[in-house]
């Protein structure tokens, strides 16, 4: 598990508040600063502190898998530079602590997240405290075996994610040019007409080929300070290519973010662009 918490944005273990689960120690007591806190798990990397919450996830029981633990205290912001995560697993009907770790975070933000590795199936619970031992919140998730990892156990969970090294060098960016061998001039801002305009979302995984025949693009636009999902579409790509691109139409100004996943729900990367009217 990483001991450094990355605050860099976009792109989950969603911790779920389920009334049927007990709270854990909470020795620090509650605080007005965290009265609106939500802790949850998602396989999606959060955008603006928001992601689809997952009550259960699928994991590769051989190689392990990861998801994101999201801690959102909006509308308040963190005034501390660190948090503590206590992990529990249910054994013989009772939760037992299996891990405790500290993470560095960036003060002044309303949310943060931890990329958490799962290597065993079971019912997980997470207590989150700030560096001063003040209790923030609790979240839960059930980790189930992924059939594709060799398990014979069936599951109806619609999402799965597995750890992968093949996208460590992936780049997602916006360009006004059609990429040539994955290369195009990246643009951080574009100007559109009131009738709308388009640009290209480039996904470059050089030097590794995708080896999948489809990707999913989730587009977000910042509204009132938070990112809201505007599109969620699947695209067919060439598996023996290390890059691809999507011609994307813009009709409204604003700050946009793009999360890209492969057909197996494995996160590839995130890109950003600012759109304004001419």
Explain the overall architecture:
- By secondary structure, this protein is mainly beta.
- The chain is 0% helix and 47% strand.
- The protein is built from no helices and 16 strands.
- The chain has a five-stranded mixed β-sheet, with no helix packed on it. Strands 10-16-15-12-13 form a five-stranded mixed β-sheet, with no helix packed on it. A three-stranded antiparallel β-sheet has the order 1-3-6, with no helix packed on it.
- Strand 12 and strand 13 form a beta hairpin.
- It starts with 37 loop residues before the first strand and ends with a strand.
- Mean pLDDT is 81; it is low at 1-23 and 148-163.
Produce the secondary structure layout:
Blueprint lengths: L37 E5 L13 E4 L5 E8 L9 E10 L2 E11 L6 E8 L3 E9 L4 E11 L25 E5 L13 E4 L4 E8 L9 E10 L2 E11 L6 E8 L3 E9 L4 E11 L1
Parallel strand pairs: 2-8, 10-16
Antiparallel strand pairs: 1-3, 3-6, 4-5, 4-7, 7-8, 9-11, 11-14, 12-13, 12-15, 15-16
């Amino acid at each position: 598990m990483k001991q450094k918490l990355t605050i860099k944005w976009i792109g989950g273990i969603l911790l779920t508040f389920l009334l049927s689960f007990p709270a854990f120690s909470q020795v620090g007591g509650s605080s007005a600063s965290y009265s609106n806190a939500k802790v949850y798990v998602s396989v999606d990397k959060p955008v603006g502190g928001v992601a689809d919450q997952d009550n259960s996830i699928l994991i590769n029981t051989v190689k392990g898998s990861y998801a994101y633990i999201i801690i959102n205290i909006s509308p308040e912001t963190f005034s501390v530079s660190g948090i503590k995560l206590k992990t529990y697993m249910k054994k013989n009907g009772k939760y037992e602590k299996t891990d405790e770790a500290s993470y560095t975070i960036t003060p002044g933000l309303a949310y943060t997240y931890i990329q958490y590795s799962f290597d065993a199936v079971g019912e997980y619970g997470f207590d989150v405290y700030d560096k001063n031992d003040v209790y923030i919140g609790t979240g839960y998730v059930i980790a189930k075996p992924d059939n594709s990892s060799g398990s014979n156990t069936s599951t109806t969970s619609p999402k799965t994610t597995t750890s992968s090294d093949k996208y460590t060098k992936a780049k997602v960016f916006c360009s006004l040019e059609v990429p040539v061998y994955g290369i195009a001039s990246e643009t951080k801002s574009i100007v559109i007409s009131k009738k709308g305009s388009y640009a290209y979302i480039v996904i470059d995984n050089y030097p590794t080929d995708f080896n999948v025949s489809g990707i999913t693009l989730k587009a977000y636009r910042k509204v009132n300070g938070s990112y809201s999902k505007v599109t969620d579409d699947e695209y067919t790509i060439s598996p023996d290519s290390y890059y691809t691109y999507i011609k994307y139409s813009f009709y409204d100004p604003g700050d946009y973010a793009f999360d890209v996943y492969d057909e197996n729900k494995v996160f590839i990367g995130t890109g950003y662009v600012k759109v304004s009217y001419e």
